[in-house]
Structure formats: C-alpha cells, structure tokens
Amino acid sequence: MMSAFYLPLSDNTFRATEHTVGPWGPDSQHLGPPSALLVRSLLALGRPSVSRVTFEVLGPVPVADLTVSTSVERPGRSVELLSASLSFEGRVVLTARAWHIVGSDTTAVAGGEVPAMAPPTSAVPMEIPDFWSGGYLAAVEWLSVSGGIFTPGDAQVWARPRVAVVEGFEPTPLERLFSVVDSASGVSSRVDIRKWYAINTDLTVHLHRQPVGEWVGMDARTTIGPDGVGLATSVVHDLEGPVGTTAQALFVRERS
C-alpha cells in the first residue's frame, strides 16, 4: 500500500494514489489531498506561513498525474500574495491564492479565541459505513466528539492523516491541517450523500496562528438554503486550541 497521497515524479509533477479517492466516484479526488499539495508548494516559495488561503474548484480533480505551478503575485516586505494551480493534461482543475503576513510579536494583545474543543482522548472512533470505507476516508484517522460524517447535523471531529502528503517527506502541521479541513462540509453534512450531492465549489481557510502537532479538530456546521445552495463553516483547532476558521459554498442537488 502506498504511504502517501502523492508520489513525486518531478519537482512539480505528482501521481495521485488510491488514498486520494473521494466520495463521488473512484476517478476523482477528495479536495483535502490536493489542497494540502498546493499549500505545500506555496510554502516551498520560501514563506513559512499563510494567514488565508482560498481554493477555487474549477472541475473534478482526477486520480492521475498532476502538475503544480506557483508564483508570487504581489511581493512585499510585510504582506505578500501567493498563488498556485493544479493542472491535469494542461487544464487547470484547482487554484489557490494565499496571503502571507510576516510575523511579529503580538503576545501582549493576543486574545479573543473561542473555547477549545474537547481533546481527542475524550472522543470515540467514527463509524465508517461499508459503502465508503476506502480511499481518502481510510487514509485519515477520525474521532468524534459529537456527530460525524454519517450523522446529519453539527459535528465536532478530530482527524489525523495516516499517510504523508508526498511520499518521502514528513508532512508539516500546516499540510496535515489542509489535508483534512475540506472535510468540514462532510462531517457536518445535513444530507445522505447516497441521495444528494453537496459539493463545495470553493474553500477558504483563515488562520490567526499556525497549527502545531498531528491532530486537527473541526467544530463544524452546515446550513442549506431553499434554492440549492449551502454554506459549511468550521472553527479549526489543534491540541492547544483554535487556530482559525473555514468556509465552503455548497452546490446541493438531489441525485436523479
């Protein structure tokens, strides 16, 4: 079994493994692994952190060989805008734009965080149904404080990737976080994915501090409107407390 979401073929080309397979079909990826891959590539530009990343999903991300490109859109001494894209056979399928804010000491005025989630030691393994028991879902360890992927409604879940992002490289806490935070819409889903589509068109992650450790917590909720549009949000945690928030717009349709 492969030990990572991706195998490196060159500096900017990566082969997706079976661990990336998402819930919508065997040929398309869950958005978590490619999000982490793009963030990894952005950090390779020499910036140690990001404060906000927005991903635009331009099409299904295939389980195939993919090419990453990166650039600094707006250089600066204090704030910089970075960008990355993921392509399949010359067609861009996912983009990311990230703000990097140069760090400074704000310990004296730090505060305003919401309460920390109950730790993983107080959670229980999340039950995984037979109809989706492999691929990405099996590549992550899932613990439920309350709710979960197959329990409709709000959820508090801890997750820890079992595999690296790229084979041969130890993932950073930031890569681990981006490997799983797209799942906020899944763990708090209000619909049965066997009967409904609830697919996010984007993902925006804001971080007020950089994460530490292996575990990523999501205090997530999903709201669905009457016209086929939903919104999934979450407060993201590590073992030291909250680190930021996520938001996803959802395309919601009943399966025919």
Write the layout of secondary structure elements.
Layout (H helix, E strand, L loop, with lengths): L3 E5 L4 E4 L15 H12 L8 E6 L7 E10 L4 E10 L2 E11 L22 E2 L9 H4 L1 E9 L2 E11 L2 E3 L6 H8 L3 H4 L8 E5 L1 E6 L8 E9 L4 E10 L2 E14 L2
Parallel strand pairs: 1-10
Antiparallel strand pairs: 1-2, 2-4, 3-6, 3-12, 4-5, 5-6, 7-8, 8-9, 9-13, 11-15, 12-15, 13-14, 14-15
Helix pairs in contact: 1-3
Structure characterization notes:
This protein is mainly beta and 256 residues long. It is built from four helices and 15 strands. It has helices at residues 32-43, 135-138, 173-180, 184-187, and strands spanning 4-8, 13-16, 52-57, 65-74, 79-88, 91-101, 124-125, 140-148, 151-161, 164-166, 196-200, 202-207, 216-224, 229-238, 241-254. A hairpin with a 2-residue loop joins strand 5 and strand 6. Helix 1 packs antiparallel against helix 3 (173-180). The relative contact order is 0.17.
How many E strands? 15
> What kind of sheet is the major sheet?
15 strands, mixed
Q: What is the share of helical residues?
A: 10-25%
Rg: 17 Å
Short description:
Pfam families: 4HBT_3, 4HBT_3C. The protein is mainly β.
Notable characteristics:
single chain; 256 residues; mainly beta; 15-stranded mixed beta sheet; globular; TesB_ACOT8-like_N; Thioesterase family protein
